[in-house]
Amino acid sequence: KYYDYTEAIPDGPTTKRFQSVAKELGMVLVLPMYEIVQPGLYYNTAAVIDADGRYLGKYRKQHIPQVKGFWEKFYFTPGTDGYPVFDTAVGKVGVYICYDRHFPEGWRALGLNGAELVFNPSATSRGLSEYIWRLEQPASAVANMYYVGAINRVGIEAEYGDDDFYGQSYFVDPEGKFVGNVGDPHKPELIVRDLDMDKIKMVRDRWAFYRDRRPDAYPELVRR
């Protein structure tokens, strides 16, 4: 029945509706959805809409898990369109969806493509990964010298198990420091933070990880 929730992007009603919302509020939106391309071809996708309502493009989740409660290989196709970065009214924005966050290669690709702020929309539950929720994204922000917005849902979804989603959404800066408090583990919240985008250049000038990396020394990274 959940296949009925799929929509085309950008021609579906949800994208069109939120283009109007983005323009009305003057807000950049990252909009995760269940995308259909044709029957049998579905993606976990996030559309990116600029503050003037323009649809800028989409990112399709690359890494598809198959664990208890998340049998995603059954209903998601891995993305093959790389790691786009979108030039928005608030800076250069990338997206890395949920389980993607466990793979450092994509974080690095987004940085090399110019990302200044990467959003990681997630639906992840207690017991599986909570203990690394406050480790991976800050470490990735440090390694790539950009901001990360880590978003996770809250609440219990009992229809197919007992998944208890632990929330704790946050922003982290290019030094790996939380910007304000981490979100509540049980209650829905709106997290609003001011980000000093000048800090990105300051940190990159100091650490210069991109300058000192050695692509010729890492052939194992692309070997299956």
Protein architecture, described:
The chain has helices spanning 13-25, 104-112, 133-144, 198-207, 209-212; strands spanning 29-38, 41-49, 55-60, 66-67, 70-71, 85-88, 91-95, 117-122, 147-152, 154-157, 163-166, 170-172. By secondary structure, the chain is α+β, with helices and mostly antiparallel strands. The strands form 4 sheets. A 5-stranded mixed β-sheet has the order 6-7-8-9-12, covered by helices on one side. The longest helix has 13 residues, at 13-25. The protein is globular, with a radius of gyration of 18 Å. 36% of the residues are buried.
What is the straight-line distance between the termini?
A: 36 Å
Mean of pLDDT: 96
Classified in CATH, the superfamily is Carbon-nitrogen hydrolase
Which blocks of ≥5 consecutive residues have pLDDT under 50? none
Largest sheet, strands/sense/barrel = 5 strands, mixed
Total count of helical runs of at least 4 residues: 5
Largest sheet: spatial strand order? 6-7-8-9-12
Radius of gyration: 18 Å
Strand content: 25-35%
CATH architecture: 4-Layer Sandwich
Remind me, CATH topology? Answer: Nitrilase/N-carbamoyl-D-aminoacid amidohydrolase
- Can you give the helix content as a percent range? 10-25%
What is the count of distinct domains?
1
Shape, per Cα inertia axes: globular
